[in-house]
């Protein structure tokens, strides 16, 4: 029987720059292919909408992948994720450091794809909840919908399910007026 070896941040930084997306989930390496063009179009459309709102209201900062979100950097429990988009309210800007984000953003956004949906819905959702990310959005290009999860008592509960051509405010934002159907190519 082989012994499980948990990867550390140092191991992570030694991984090749080969176009794949690397993450560490509780010390285990997770590799996914580069996003599809459809995924990137949805990501760009969502980024533009959120960034415009956040800048206009001076609410903080929105950043897009690739960006290391280091939720735990212990030898026995390293967790480094790369959400598609992240939002930091003004009170959380101090977690942005030179090597990446060191701590929980206000909001993590994952755009689902056939190769990542199960990981995003299960593994990453549990990790974001465990490490205190208050809000999680799962954006589904297949169903043309957005699921907004709020962290309550250490777990996520569905707060909003949005789709269609009507403007909606999605937490944690007020006055956002996002039109879900505007995201899809």
What's the layout of helices and strands?
Layout: H1 9-13, E1 21-25, E2 28-32, H2 37-57, E3 60-64, E4 69-72, E5 79-81, E6 85-89, E7 96-97, E8 100-102, E9 107-111, H3 117-130, E10 135-140, E11 145-152, E12 155-163
Parallel strand pairs: 4-8, 9-10
Antiparallel strand pairs: 1-2, 3-6, 4-5, 6-9, 7-8, 10-11, 11-12
Q: What tags apply to this protein structure?
A:
12 strands, single chain, four-stranded mixed β-sheet, tt1808, chain A, alpha+beta, six-stranded mixed β-sheet
General description of the model:
The protein has 185 residues and is an alpha+beta fold. It has one domain: tt1808, chain A, CATH 3.90.1570.10. The chain contains 3 helices and 12 strands; from the N terminus they run αββαβββββββαβββ. The chain has a 6-stranded mixed sheet with strand order 3-6-9-10-11-12, sandwiched between helices. A hairpin with a 2-residue loop joins strand 7 and strand 8 (100-102). The radius of gyration is 16 Å and the shape is globular.
In short:
With 185 residues, the protein is of the alpha+beta class.
- Which range does the strand content fall in? 25-35%
- Number of discrete domains: 1
Largest sheet features: 6 strands, mixed
CATH topology assignment:
tt1808, chain A
Give the strand tally: 12
Helix and strand run: HEEHEEEEEEEHEEE
CATH superfamily: tt1808, chain A
| Uncertain spans | none
Figure out the total of helices.
3
